[in-house]
Amino acid sequence: MQFTLRHHTAGDYDALPDMNDINAGVLSREDQLCLNELGRSLLNTRSNSRFGISLLHSHFPVSDTEVFVQTSDATKRTVSLSPQRLEPTLQKSMAAMNVRFEETQTSNAISLIGLEYFLKQSAPGIDSINSADANVLGSIHAVLDRHGKTARFGVRVIHMSVELADDEVYSESCDIDRRVLICEVVNKRDPLLARSIETFWVWPDLCASADDPDIIAHCPAKCKITCLDGNFGHPRGHKDLHKTIDGDETSSASSS
Prior knowledge:
Strand content: 25-35%
Order of helices and strands: EHHEEEHEEHEEEEHHEH
Shape: globular
Number of helices: 7
Strand order of the largest sheet: 2-7-5-6-3-4-9-8-11-10
């Protein structure tokens, strides 16, 4: 099967739903049905440890000469994504991590747009999305196309540069002035997550090992990344948003 992968353009990001739009993160029944079928496809092809499904969205514009690149800080347990100028040196050292399908596909070709990249030296055991993935990606595209969701969901390599415990999740916030997305590790019981939007899902091996087709079919997706609600503005991190929300609640209590 023919395989092509190109870098995103400014227009590709302009076409994505803005996370501040009120319905950008609301999953419809059809969205959920599509996610369920995507999970079954990943499990059936035994690629659930390689790929998850991402919610396509944007936070701010990028130029044609930039690409989104991920960096991490193991000490602070944070992961950042920011636009970087696409220089030849960077191009050689980066690998596609999050992609979407081109709107025009043929039965014998997979055409992808790279939306986010990681640095190869930061993840020596992780392969970039490549032609060896074509058959699995073809199965995923078939599900998306059948549900009319090729512009709704993308495919993301499972690459957690900061490992998560079972009770943890990445919480993504946006510093729009610096054009940086910041993912911080938080506990799943953090009350702020009730106001967040799930943006990346994986299906655990427990589902893949189930012999009963019904168990596989109803195995829930496990959310790995959530995006803090843009209606609260653009804080510089999870702690800042806690201060914003707690401050609002304090002010409301004082005024009453």
